[in-house]
Amino acid sequence: MFCTQCGEQLADSARFCFNCGEATQKTDLSLADDREPKIVMSQRDNLEVSEGAEPEPIINTKDALYHAAIGHKYEDYYRDGFDRFAREGNTGASWNWPAFFFSLYWMLYRKMWYPAAGYFLAGILITIIALPTAKDGAGVTTVDIVYLVGAFIIFPMYANALYYKKCNELIATARFNHPNPNEQLSYLKRKGRTSSIVWVLIALCVVLTLLGILGAITVPAYQDYSTRTHVQNAYNSSNEVTKAFKEYYERNQTIPQRLEQLFIGPQHIPNSLLKLDPDNGQITVSMYAGDLNGEALVLTPYLDNNQQIFWECKAAGISQRYLPNACSQ
């Protein structure tokens, strides 16, 4: 047996076509006004059913089933496309602007969970494949072009066909699993129509965007503050080292050769490494904290006219905005 609507081959016992949802037995498919969902009962010559006679079955019209599956939003648009597919007997190309601009969100909005998951995973897979070439500076690759063509040309062209197939599958499942017409409509309204989850995702994306903007402002500011604090602390702690150096020189009239002579170890300053140059007494404070990875303050001793030691502070690899007032680049 073949479907009279789309030509699909069916089992002899089938009551409805699983491809287009068309009934295979003769039923009253009169349309209700304004395409509102109705439950239609076939009657013979508008006569009451005589007592003891078995009434003809109650069957939902195709319009009622599609209305339950699609919902009020853009129902006329989708029904026009679905009718064209049914007349032509195949699901050809068309165009869907929401599927072009908001592909993933459109599928979630129309409860097309599996296609949405496949679309999302395909994007991740393409990103993983294209990432090594992007790091090498290869520019736009063949994989990128294939993905862009598929996502922004092929998918919008066949989005209506995909939705048509989904609605027909829902209708066929409702008819097969729920003989009661009211249960069919309830099932289609529950499984079809639209989902509010897309608005939750949009709200989540807005929140994440705002958090990203806030993070882009606050994180660099905090990093600057943290780096400036580490440098200032290292400079303040180095005063103890220079004081011990000065006392040693006043006692011995010579510069120390090792930090141990000052009773100070190389790691005396937290998150820093001290180094003493025995030739000129220069003290280097290399810092390892936050964004600092070996950048240093260089303290060089000089004698004034009174043979008193004073220190000059220079920076090695540190931006001027992080330095104390007593230091310079």
TrEMBL record:
GO BP, one annotated term: cell adhesion
Keywords: Membrane, Transmembrane, Transmembrane helix
Xref: Pfam families: DUF2628, Pilin, Zn_Ribbon_1
GO-annotated cellular components: pilus
Keyword Iron-sulfur: no
Regions crossing the membrane: 112-133, 145-164, 197-222
Zinc-ribbon domain: residues covered: 2-21
InterPro entries, sorted: DUF2628, Pilin, Pilin-like, Zinc_ribbon_dom
Family, per entry: Belongs to the N-Me-Phe pilin family.
Entry protein name: Zinc-ribbon domain-containing protein
Organism: Methylophaga thiooxydans DMS010
